[in-house]
Amino acid sequence: MSHPQTVGTSSPAEVPRPAPAVIAAVRASCHAVAHRPVRLAEAFYEHLFEMAPQLRAMFPPDLTGQMQKMSDTLLGAVAQLDTADTAELEVALRRLGADHRTRFRVEPEHYQYIGHALTRAVRDVSGQGYTGSLSSAWIAVYQWIAAHMTAGAQAAESETSTADQSPIALPQPREPREDDLDPASRPHDWHRADR
């Protein structure tokens, strides 16, 4: 089974919006998953922590709320994919990626683990309905979602690194010198009212 190898390194411009047939296949599989979204999330986190145990520390001990959020977000994103204009979804995904980067320190390389865990979880929940073409469809959709999330994360990272720079040092006032007090040594002041 193939999996995304470069997820998290592609920009949204490099990952086209999935074709209508791909979106339709993923949406159809979501109908089967919609009856047990928490099972999808459970399988997702099982696979994620099996592949990348170091990521477990990024999550709360009780994943109940997180599982519901994950499945709601994923199913919501897939539901919006077939709209004519995905600009609103793209903005939401970028914000989500920025939030994951700044609040949870999600790194670009984590998206590869997430992609693998997601496709395996969909396989587990889909049972015999899971085919090679469905796997490819989920990979295409995930790559598109991840490209927008990583773009948001990169933008947040660059904003943070700019904000974290040391403040510009302002010149310190100098002690007055004797020639500062001599009116003949000062430049002509064209704005004085007595002229």
From TrEMBL:
The keyword Heme applies. It comes from the Bacteria. GO terms for molecular function: FAD binding; heme binding; metal ion binding; nitric oxide dioxygenase NAD(P)H activity; oxygen binding; oxygen carrier activity. Residues 155-195 are annotated as: Disordered. CDD domains: Mb-like_oxidoreductase (cd19753). The keyword Transmembrane helix does not apply. Residues 17-154 form the Globin domain. InterPro entries: Globin, Globin-like_sf, Globin/Proto. GO terms for biological process: cellular response to nitrosative stress; nitric oxide catabolic process. Residues 183-195 have a biased composition (Basic and acidic residues). Pfam families: Globin. Gene3D superfamilies: Globins (1.10.490.10). SUPFAM superfamilies: Globin-like. PANTHER family: FLAVOHEMOPROTEIN. Belongs to the globin family. This is Globin. The lineage of its organism: Bacteria, Bacillati, Actinomycetota, Actinomycetes, Pseudonocardiales.
